[in-house]
Amino acid sequence: MERSRIRNFCIIAHIDHGKSTLADRFIQSTHVVSERDFHDQILDTMDIERERGITIKSQAISLPFKAENGSTYHLNLVDTPGHVDFSYEVSRAISACEGALLIIDATQGVEAQTVSNMYLALDHDLEIIPVINKIDLPGADVDNVKRQIEHDLGLDADNVFLISAKLGTGIGELLEGMVKRIPAPVGSEKDPLKALIFDSHYDSYRGVVVHIRVFSGVLRKDDLVRFFSNNAVYKVEETGVFKLNLQKTENLSAGEVGYFIAGIKNISKTKVGDTVTLDKHPCTEPVKGFREVKPVVFSSIYPVDANDYELLSDAMEKLKLNDASLIYEKDSSAALGFGFRCGFLGLLHLEIIQERIEREYGLSIVFTAPSVRYKIFLKDGTDKFIDNPLEYPDPTHIEKTEEPFIRAAIITPAEYLGNILTICLEKRGIQQSLTYLDEKRVEVIYELPLAEVLFDFYDKLKSSSRGYASFDYELTGYRQTELVKLDILINGKPVDALSQLVFKDGAYARARHICKKLRDEIPRHQFKIPIQGSIGSTVIARETINAVRKDVTAKCYGGDITRKRKLIEKQKEGKKRMKMVGNVELPQSAFLSVLKTSEDK
């Protein structure tokens, strides 16, 4: 394939600005699929993606486009997820391209992730084409959005394309503009093979299908290839390009985007951002920017029915085949039995894994409260990372603790600024800057503890700004904090699955919230049940579930009052014995209620 007729591009935008809808119009306009076989969000392969309207797994497709000059160009689209949890996938997809379509909603304007994604594209020297989408909506304010593009992004508003991805307006002009403005890829077939892995997926018959962008050299069937990150060597069985299905080709040469299959059985061997080269004639250095994807949120997962543990184990193995970023290890709890300790890229990633397990494998599961990874410095001079409350050492051995911090960028209409600042202060935020982008919008930069963002920050942000505030963040490092382990005792016994690591000053409010939630969820028993929140041996919160009282005096009609008293005293003695030997039954909803975001003030 001639390099001069190849255009590699990606679509980047804030969540819900119309990336997948635009990809649909491109596929229809280039007649890759017949009208009969077409359906909306055709690149989104999971039901969850279609229902939620978000892209979770990035996709790639090659689109043949006949331009006005009569030449046919191959437009390689690398679709990217929009959520901040998957920002590393976005950065690797951007590395595989020469151009980027920056989509901006005509009703919402420039938002936090729009800005961060644009800088990500600029870091990779991409040709950025600004596109204003949803111009057909009644609330569209194109002139104002153009001003934002010039003022906030520093891009030329005269070069903006106006489209409606839903109706197909302006799609032809945009395709022509991409051919003219996005540069053709560079690189020589004569140089050693250098290819970037930007994604992969698992095929149950063929093994791992590795998605690559070739920067130099040629990849052919039967070549022996080596991965830079782990020096693993594999023999190539097949190469090809992405249509709606995989389309086999003789080779992949410099500038092309495609895939290869090499009998790889473990998807964790193919790391996003890794470089592939020939084993016998390797390139001298890998593609820049590779790093290991590290989880930031941790939670334990248990089957509701202990007999389903083997089924859950199989489900986790199969999910791992399709999601290399999922990290898990075996775990156990006195309250919930055997399960797995998992690491996730963010809360959305956790929700998606939970939904997939319940839908695809039909299992009922319980997640423990999500936690971040803390750094503990001990008095003997050693330090360690912990993410599980069960691993928390004796407080007398701890010198100091540190927690991860993020740099949060929030863009909000000025009228909601007071609400946003209040929320950030409640969450121990440190304000870095406050900039008025124009007369209506403000950008606020805060440094926040990641643990504070986990539970309800995003919900509060959206509700206090009526959905108009946008939020983007990046991890910045660790800072010293006051950390304590909050234990929840039910009937005097600690329930390990409900334990949490919390900031010391917020422990009382958190303990009260959990105790109140559990009081509402745990059914009444034949005896009183105390629910306590404690730090060490100090109880800081308590709620009591009153006993169910059977009327033992119902059979006494009249007679001396002492007869009734004897029966009541006898009942009390029985309840004392029951309290000593009785076990409290905890329903699944009790564990789930602890994860709910709203806290009672």
Descriptive key words:
alpha+beta; Elongation Factor Tu (Ef-tu), domain 3; 8-stranded antiparallel beta sheet; 6-stranded mixed beta sheet; disordered C terminus
Structural topology:
Elements: E1 6-13, H1 19-29, H2 47-52, E2 60-66, E3 72-79, H3 87-95, E4 99-105, H4 112-123, E5 127-133, H5 142-153, E6 161-162, H6 171-181, E7 194-203, E8 207-216, E9 218-220, E10 224-227, E11 233-235, E12 238-242, E13 246-249, E14 251-253, E15 257-261, E16 275-278, E17 297-303, H7 309-322, E18 327-333, E19 337-344, H8 347-360, E20 365-367, E21 374-378, E22 383-386, E23 398-413, H9 417-426, E24 430-436, E25 441-449, H10 450-455, H11 457-464, E26 470-481, E27 483-490, E28 493-494, E29 500-503, H12 507-521, E30 529-535, E31 538-545, H13 561-581, H14 588-595
Parallel strand pairs: 1-3, 1-4, 4-5, 5-6
Antiparallel strand pairs: 2-3, 7-8, 7-16, 8-15, 9-14, 10-11, 10-16, 12-13, 12-15, 17-19, 17-20, 18-19, 21-22, 21-23, 23-25, 23-26, 24-25, 27-28, 27-29, 27-30, 30-31
Description of the structure:
There is one protein chain. With 601 residues, the chain is an alpha+beta fold. The protein has five domains: 3-181, Rossmann fold (3-Layer(aba) Sandwich), CATH 3.40.50; 194-278, Beta Barrel (Elongation Factor Tu (Ef-tu), domain 3); 297-367, Elongation Factor G (Translational Gtpase), domain 3 (Alpha-Beta Plaits), CATH 3.30.70.870; 374-481, Alpha-Beta Plaits (2-Layer Sandwich), CATH 3.30.70.240; 484-595, Alpha-Beta Plaits. The chain has 14 helices and 31 strands. The strands form six sheets. An eight-stranded antiparallel β-sheet has the order 11-10-16-7-8-15-12-13. It has a six-stranded mixed β-sheet with strand order 2-3-1-4-5-6, sandwiched between helices. A hairpin with a 4-residue loop joins β21 (374-378) and β22 (383-386). The longest helix has 21 residues, at 561-581. The protein is globular and about 110 Å long. Mean pLDDT is 81; it is low at 597-601.
